[in-house]
């Protein structure tokens, strides 16, 4: 069974440390108490969530004392997937996924679900994706249009395609003054481990900024609502709503910043300018600022 699991993991793109000889057997013996076993399970579940709309999720643990949390999350996921193996879904939760046999069966079940989900997607691609293309396709299409490239032939290889993009980019850069584009902010090459860490950092920042955006937008809504408390404003409520709502709907809470933005960033973005500096004040000055400055000078 271990050999079949390793073959399936390799076919599905897993490149973790458990591909080494004897590593898988060493972690399934410990089961849920092994952080490496939970990392493997969490990886399979994360891949599975790309194809299925699952409410439950499974997170890797950092130490054996966190095993109970993993057992609870995995039990919820197996219930949602309607797992047919009673040995994985019955009994007290804290006693599950501890034996070698159960752990191997759990990994086998998750891998079979992932494999089946990928096969279904290949055989029945989403209609929307067929009509408009994937996000990656749309990005590449935008690059080709920006560079003035013609539609590539259907038999072109990926190497030939990206070589053509590189050639067009060099031609475009050669037509602008030196240092027009600037030096990249990140000069060192990123490996898979670096990319994984950077994506984790970016996701943490995106989550934090989303909370901040929600708070600021809530404050904005409350402030605008307060404008309508007066008797005069109540007669203009419909007009205010007609002007405000289209602008408000354009303010989204989620961020579209990704690792691609970091890789494309140039060194000039790392320069920090004080908001009170002369150059910045020229761009942010307005009538309200002038009133504040006048009041300050009078004092």
From TrEMBL:
InterPro entries: FAM98 (IPR018797). GO terms for cellular component: tRNA-splicing ligase complex. Coiled coil: none annotated. Belongs to the FAM98 family. This is Family with sequence similarity 98 member A. It comes from Cyprinodon variegatus (Sheepshead minnow).
């Amino acid at each position: 069974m271990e050999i079949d699991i390793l073959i399936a993991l390799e076919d599905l793109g897993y490149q973790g440390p458990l591909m080494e000889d004897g590593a898988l057997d060493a972690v399934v013996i410990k089961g849920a108490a092994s952080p490496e076993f939970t990392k493997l399970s969490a990886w399979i579940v994360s891949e599975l969530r790309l194809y299925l709309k699952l409410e439950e999720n499974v997170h890797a643990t950092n130490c054996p004392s966190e095993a109970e949390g993993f057992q609870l999350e995995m039990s919820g996921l197996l219930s949602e997937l309607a797992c047919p193996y009673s040995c994985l879904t019955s009994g007290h939760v804290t006693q599950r996924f501890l034996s070698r046999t159960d752990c191997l069966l759990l990994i086998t079940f998750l891998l079979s679900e992932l494999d089946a989900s990928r096969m279904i997607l290949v055989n029945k691609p989403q209609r929307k994706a067929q009509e408009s293309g994937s996000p990656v396709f749309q990005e590449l299409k935008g690059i080709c249009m920006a560079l003035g490239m013609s539609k590539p032939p259907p038999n072109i290889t990926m190497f030939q395609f990206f070589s053509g993009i590189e050639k067009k980019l060099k031609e475009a850069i050669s037509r602008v003054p030196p240092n027009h584009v600037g030096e990249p902010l990140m000069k060192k090459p990123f490996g898979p481990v670096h990319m994984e860490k950077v994506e984790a950092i970016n996701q943490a920042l995106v989550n934090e900024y989303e909370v901040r955006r929600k708070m600021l937008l809530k404050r904005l809504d409350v402030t605008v609502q307060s404008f309508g408390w007066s008797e005069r404003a109540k007669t203009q409520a419909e007009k205010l709503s007609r002007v405000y709502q289209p602008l408000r709907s354009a303010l989204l809470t989620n961020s579209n910043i990704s690792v691609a933005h970091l890789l494309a960033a140039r060194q000039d973005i790392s320069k920090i300018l004080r908001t009170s500096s002369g150059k910045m004040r020229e761009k942010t000055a307005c009538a309200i600022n002038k009133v504040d400055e006048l009041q300050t000078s009078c004092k």
